Amino acid sequence: MAGSFYVSSPAQAQDSYLGTVELSGYNFCRRGTVEANGALLLISQNQALFSLFGTIYGGDGRTTFAMPDLRGRVPFHRGTNQGGATYQIGSRSGTETNTLTVNQMPSHSHTAGLSVNALESNTNQPARSYPAVGPAGTNTYYRGQKPPYFLAADAFTIFPTGGNQSVNNMQPYLTMNYCVVTQGIFPSRN
C-alpha cells in the first residue's frame, strides 16, 4: 500500500504525560485535558495530577489546586538568568501596561534662543521707551517705537515632561489555546 498510512487506534490524552501543557490551534481542549486558565480542580478527583502540581499555581491544598493560568502570559523556563535573577516555577510577574513617571525618564534638556537686532538709537530715559541691550550696570532703553523683536512675558512656557499615561507593554502576540493534560502517563522523575 504505497502512500497510505493507517493508525490502529486514535491518539488519546492517555498517550501524553500527566501535567504536560499542550498548545493547540483549535478553540477547545481535547478529552483528558483542561484549559490552562487558572481553574481550580478537586484534589479528590485528580490526585495524581495534584501530586505533581501541589499548590504551585494556587488552590487551598486541602480540597482544591489550580491549573496554570496562561491567559495574557508568556511561559518561560525556571532557573537563574545571566543577570542573576531567579525565577521559581509558578511565579508570575509583568504587566500588560506600564506607566513611566518623570523620575523614570532619562534626563534631557532643550535650548531656546532669541535673536534681537539692537536699534541704533539708545537712551537712558525710560519714558515711552522699551528695554534694550546695553553695557552691564546701565539702564538702557529703545527710544520711540518698540523693536521688531519683542519677547513678551508669556512667550515661552516650560511644561513638565511626561504625563504619567499608561503605555502598552505587550509584545506582538498570536492567541492560541493552552491545555493541561489531566489524564495520561505519570511521568518518572529521572
Automatic annotation (TrEMBL):
<dbReference type="InterPro" id="IPR037053">
    <property type="entry name" value="Phage_tail_collar_dom_sf"/>
</dbReference>
<dbReference type="InterPro" id="IPR011083">
    <property type="entry name" value="Phage_tail_collar_dom"/>
</dbReference>
<dbReference type="Pfam" id="PF07484">
    <property type="entry name" value="Collar"/>
</dbReference>
<feature type="domain" description="Phage tail collar">
    <location>
        <begin position="19"/>
        <end position="75"/>
    </location>
</feature>
<protein>
    <recommendedName>
        <fullName>Phage tail collar domain-containing protein</fullName>
    </recommendedName>
</protein>
